[in-house]
Amino acid sequence: MKLAIVAALITSVGAFMAPAPSTFISRRTTSPIMATASPPAPAARKTPVFDEVCETTGVTLTRFMIEVAMLNPELSELPSLFSGIETACKAISNMVKRSQLTGDIGYAEGGGSINVQGEEQKTLDIMTNDVLKRALRFTGKLGVLASEEEDTPVDVEPTGKEVMFDETSKYVAVFDPLDGSSNVDAGIPTGTIFGIFDHDEECVVNDKDEGLTEAEMVCLTNTLKPGTDLIASGYCLYSSSCFFVMTVGCGVYGFTLDESIGEFVLTHPNIKIPETSKIYSFNEANLPQWDEPMRETVEKWRIGEGKSGNSFSSRYIGSMVGDVHRTLLYGGVFGYPSDKKNVNGKLRLLYEGAPMSYLMEQAGGLSTTGTKRVMEILPDEVHQRVPIVMGSKQDVQEVVDAYSAAGF
Ligand code: FDP
């Protein structure tokens, strides 16, 4: 397997020499939300070129991030943050893999532990949240943290001897520690999603019950940025292999955990999603409740009467990271659209919708609510939901066109 990876890397060196993808999204875009889901023009961020590749280790995520930081000095603090996330992913991968043996399955506290979304928490939801929080705290690079399992942003200002780097807070990280956790007890793929924003303000949020102080509101506001302000995003997929897929705004790069050396190794350089495809990925039980343009487009796809003329197949794991990973590699459309009961769909904007949309656009795809580009939506609250349709450019554009033709 290692040899196959090395061969793939050597043939992929050319891919690194390609210019930055034309889908680069400016972090400070303020353009109005358009009916088209197309991202704006590219800005410059440099991607490393690897002339020499070690035959034993390939290009590790650590090396990749060091080279990214050397080429883009404004990102110089990112490698240590990535190293925290990478370590957490390895730990979570083991926890998920061993959960049937260690008994870390089922609902937390035997049932009844409810997160701020009103959803019952799995044992692994809580454990993985803690792992990620601790891994990031010790990077010393983080100001504020918001997560699906936390009600308000959590202060992770480094303190005492546990701090590895004595520097001011620079980033805000948002994450979903174990996305798709309702599947985890059945051994179905799950994942961790993360998004990283610049952190301009110094602030502290205390863990307590009586609501937020004004200073804490500043923290909250700091976390609430549109996807166009993301510095980096990515996910770890816990499946047949453990994958780490990321972007820092110059394409999408996929790494696979090589357990024999304990490193993520570059296996999928410069991922590009096919422009059109034959796969859709939705919870079709909700189809009768969807907006008419959404319903009609999918009904046409089913019978080969959509724009491409392809008869689509359905593939839905019900685990966003798994479904998005397949969509990136094979093409297709993944979504959780608005429906009559859930007008904002199900997925969370800040730590699911925006980070995944950043990856999707960087891979050459699109991500829309049907009427707006997901990346440009400014969140009003941390756990805000957003309707999402993302994937192959031409197919997603077909959805956008259907909404627009129907006067939405
Ligand atoms: P889960 O509730 O298991 O964590 O947003 C969470 C999510 O899974 C996504 O990963 C997944 O795409 C979606 O919900 C599945 O929702 P449905 O069960 O309603 O299809």
UniProtKB/TrEMBL annotation:
Any single GO CC term annotated in Swiss-Prot or TrEMBL for this entry: cytosol
Start and end residues of each Fructose-1-6-bisphosphatase class I N-terminal domain: 60-269
Residue ranges constituting the Fructose-1-6-bisphosphatase class 1 C-terminal domain according to the UniProt record: 273-403
Single GO biological process annotation from the record: sucrose biosynthetic process
Recorded GO MF terms: fructose 1,6-bisphosphate 1-phosphatase activity; metal ion binding
Endpoints of the signal sequence: 1-15
UniProt pathway annotation: Carbohydrate biosynthesis
InterPro entries in alphabetical order: FBPase_C_dom, FBPase_class-1, FBPase_N, FBPtase, Fructose_bisphosphatase_AS
Keyword hit for Hydrolase: yes
Keywords linked to the UniProt accession: Carbohydrate metabolism, Hydrolase, Magnesium, Metal-binding, Signal
Broad class of enzyme this protein falls into: hydrolase
PROSITE patterns on file: FBPASE
Cofactor: Mg(2+)
Domain of life: Eukaryota
Catalytic activity: beta-D-fructose 1,6-bisphosphate + H2O = beta-D-fructose 6-phosphate + phosphate
UniProt family annotation: Belongs to the FBPase class 1 family.
Name of the molecule in the record: fructose-bisphosphatase
Organism (species): Triparma strigata
